[in-house]
Request: fold
Amino acid sequence: MKPIKQFLLGSILLVGTSVMNQSMAQEKDNTLSKKEKREGWQLLFDGMTTAGWHSFNQPQLGSAWNVEDGALHLNKANNNDGGDATTREEYGDFELTLDWKISKNGNSGIMFLVKEEPKFGRPYFTGPEMQVLDNNGHPDAKIIKHRAGDLYDLITSAPETVKPVGEWNNVKIKLKDAKLEFWLNGTKVVSTTLWDDSWNKLVAGSKFKSMNDFAKFRNGHIVLQDHGDEVWYKNIKIRKL
Reply:
């Protein structure tokens, strides 16, 4: 092979390896890129520990939550000490992204604007929820507004973009100036405005109508629901807007 061809081939291989390594670095779980750091993102889960999380209205996170292969994993098969995993901080306007994977016939959820006080027995007394569900197996999937990606019991997500059991789903939840948006696997599936007359009518027609403090707070905790079923979360990132 002539020297110039050897040089060109070597350059191509070097560039290809560099691009591949850069891509792999960008795709590494539970990390922030330089761009994300500049934009103000913070990790809520480091992929190695449960630091920064506690069970709702409890000082520590229940031991049924553990770290498995870089994911925050709830498994109550042999351990009933779970609880709804709750962030240390509260957030008002925010953008949250994460990945979730659900077990067969499983149910969980991502709640926000949750207030943590003894008088609130469960996170859903105050916090709206993006549903996490096995649409092909859990009975809730038969109920409109209870399917994966829905603003639970309030707005049906559309189109339906959820992936089946065992596959990771990517979520973005954005709240800015009362405008709420849900994204599931790259597609916007819910868009609404909180705290206006239309919102109040939605709540009045839902199971939350008798919960006087539901969705009344302008800031609160992020909560990952313990519904008793096995579920995994990773790449949990948030930024304040």
